[in-house]
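Lines hold sequence, tokenised fold; shown next:
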Amino acid sequence: MNEEKLNRLKNFTLLLVDDEEALLDKLHTVLSIFFKEVILAKDGQEALDIYHTQNIDMVISDYAMPVLDGYGLCKAIRQEDKYIPLVIMSNYSDKEKLLSVIPLALAQYLIKPIDYASLTATLLSMIEQIEVNGLDIIVINNFISYNRFNKILIDQGEEINLSSNEISLLELFIMKNNQIVTMEEINLCLNSLEMKSKQAVKSLIYRLRKKVGKDVILNIPAYGYMFKV
């Protein structure tokens, strides 16, 4: 059951923050098994800049860091997003630090050194926050939403199944919401080993538009497409 839940993390992007390079690399190796993508930062300010420019679903950050510490980072993020799962790591288990992070509504507080059991328990807590707060649901418009866990569209309560290529393309568009997505990016997303023809991509986009709405996927002549939620 827990393994099934952990597999759901393949739909999400994690921001991992620590100024200790060896630990950052080690955690990156382990966490990349679970997440769709793990983006690294070496201090709180770099992490905050990444948070503002990329689509981040969850954050795991060290407490003590230069420039901006983990508490300051998570506080800044929490002011903008009340629900994103946040985790702080620390070498210390003293009450002062534990008490200071209570208002941040963390998914977990991890004590270093981190063992595999503690890490997976933390990931399960993050999944629980995702489910409780409905963050697995992407609202596309007033009628249509997408469930990232079940990978289905929901149109006014009715479930709409998607092909594997439609799922891959839709999740690429969601990840790059309000950004231009090129034909090269679409091909890489669908199959990195075999380029699809322009007509094949256009046919796929036509089918997806019929399910999510023509005004959601915009054609940007000479550049590609843009997904607007």
Observations:
- The two ends are 33 Å apart (CA to CA).
- The longest helix spans residues 116-132.
- Residues 142 and 156 are 9 Å apart (CA to CA).
- The domain at 140-227 is CATH 1.10.10.10 (Arc Repressor Mutant, subunit A).
